[in-house]
Amino acid sequence: MASPYDDLDRPPLQAAALERALVRPGSTWTGVQVLATTPSTNTVLRDRAADPASTGLVVMAEHQTAGRGRLGRSWVAPPRSAITMSVLVRPAGVEVACWPWIPLLTGLALAAALRRTAEVEATLKWPNDVLIGDKKVAGILVERVEAQPLPPAAVIGMGINVSLGASDLPVPDATSLLLAGASMSDRTVLVRAVLRALERLLTRWESGGGDASQGLLDSYVAACSTIGQQVQVELPDGERLLGEATGIDATGRLLVRTGLGQRAISSADLVHVRAADGTIT
To answer: Which of 55, 92, 169, 213 is buried deepest, with most CB atoms within 10 A?
Structure first.
């Protein structure tokens, strides 16, 4: 019998299985959709944000043709070689001022799921990347969408390099689960693990009113490889700061100790953070 897909090494996502595993009464996730191709899963959910039925929706693409990262940077991968996924949430009882923690807790969920399910040594790179070693395996883009009369929405986009080979990588400092020797490359299993971990952390964060000091902050700092590095921070006005990344504050800002004292850097006010050797972080 002919295969229902043309690449046995890159099987399609199983939307029905994910829906059965993730969507239940009281769950954060209310539906799972897998698109064959789309420019951007974040854009799909941004366009649906004014629909009440979009809350808790998970949208994935087998091929994303115009994926975006921070500051409009492109993110591309061959069809079915990656997890390209967005979810839409409306954090209950959390002030928008606390929302800078959303990409951080998403990264925490991603790294934990990859460590547990794929058995790789995943760490966090502030503010929105996941590393294996010193190479990027996953990235996060969170966008706030006003959706009156509904509460504002957070569209959380995630991209995970799964089965990309060396010739598929878009930049030299990227990697994939395949290249890192992961024990698991089934994208359906990985998606399930990521969304369960993200649901747990979102629920915990929301129940605390967005206060990350109740365990999330310590967990993030422990998993973040940026902390303790000598870094160069590039700001939008051209200013460059050189110092040691010493921690994360309660609002999710990176603390950098420079020769002139300590500075708190918001991800919203950031162009790049680079390791002192020039590596972009």
So the answer is: 55
- Determine contact, residues 177/161, Cβ cutoff 8 Å: yes
- Flag whether 280 is in a domain: no
Mean per-residue pLDDT pooled into runs of 10, the chain (281 residues) = 57 97 97 97 97 97 82 75 98 93 98 98 96 96 94 97 95 95 97 98 96 93 96 91 96 95 91 70 44
184 contacts: CB under 8 Å, gap ≥ 6: 117, 118, 119, 177, 190
Q: Which domain range does residue 231 map to?
A: 226-275
How many Å is the Cα radius of gyration of the chain?
18
Which CATH number covers residue 214?
A: 3.30.930.10
DSSP-derived letter for residue 72 is: G
For residue 149, whether the previous peptide bond is cis, meaning omega lies within 30 degrees of 0, is: yes
| Residue 51 within a domain | yes
Residues 51 and 26 in one domain: yes
pTM above the 0.90 mark?
A: yes
Query: Whole-angstrom Cα distance, residue 224 to residue 234?
Result: 19
